[in-house]
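FORM 7B: Structural annotation worksheet

SECTION A. Query
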Amino acid sequence: MSERAPSDLPTDFRFRVDATDGTARTGAITMPRGTIRTPAFMPVGTAATVKAMYPGQVRDLGADVVLGNTYHLMLRPGPERMERLGGLHRFMNWPHPILTDSGGFQVMSLSALRKLDEQGVTFRSHVDGSTHHMSPERSIAIQGLLGSDIQMQLDECVRLPADAAAIEKAMRLSLRWAERCRVAFGEQPGKALFGIVQGGDIPDLRVESARALVDLDLKGYAIGGLAVGEPQAVMLAMIETVEPHLPREKPRYLMGVGTPDDLMRSVARGIDMFDCVMPTRAGRHGLAYTRHGRINLRNARHGEDTRPLDEASACPAARDYSRAYLHHLVRTDEILGMMLLTWNNLSYYQDLMAGMRAAIAQGRLADFCDETRANWARAEAERAAA
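SECTION B. Predicted structure
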């Protein structure tokens, strides 16, 4: 499959699988605003911006879609104002696909005070203390006002480890909310509503959640409630539990994940879409992701290192600046350091996804992943010996 998006985009939402390698698959989601090549990594644009990046840079690195956050955007600048300003795409100068989350995770994790019941959740803003109510219907309405292309159901996300009764209660509430979100979403040609599989680390609950959501016949399905404190092995086991129960003809999205190794292991288990703040957050704190593994530019060892992060990278941030200079920028808290390392990290993530797409098409994903990990280990051993 070409790495270029086709010009003859459909008027509806479509997903196709072009090649498989075991459970892994590569293909494309197509919709009126563009094509998303899968497996895809979505940079997180929490408050209508991918932090420390220009929209054009994000696009040039290979991103086909970004994520916007309903919770943050409902607080500032507000969904009604966003609609008056022409919607999120125009507001942030990103004419390509946008996925918005439901806001549920942030309500649960950021709000100082909240009250959850069948109707939704009432919470106090972490910004100014104002009180708000988020119901399934309101979440969908806000996402509609923002104008996003892929919208997520409102769900209750429980951090792990958690009591089994609490996990089950949250899963069943999320299912009831999914039904209400489907009704509220209605028919929106060219757009999609995704359901979210919950159930914590309990396989039977995960399977029950997946089957019930599939009965709703949504356009795509996410696996939520992972990467919230559990070991990687638990996350992977839950993916393996859920994957056989999700339709093969619809996209699968693993929410909030993760490290480059998480991405490779999850793609091998059939996941098509990812988002995570890790590459941008790490860049703002002096950590670079590269072909040579993770490099902490705060370390004094880089103070006189004239090598770039990766001389073979197509990204100027990785290729054209010395580690010594990046170390200096990080240690002096210069904004340019945050910008360059974020640019590098998102470039690496997009290159990793492109590499996996090509490897799946060639039937060699396992080899690609083994070679990638071996390169990380070799570089880490060299740094340890230096």
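SECTION C. Observations
The CA atoms of residues 303 and 324 lie 5 Å apart. The two ends are 42 Å apart (CA to CA).

SECTION D. Sign-off
Analyst initials: ____
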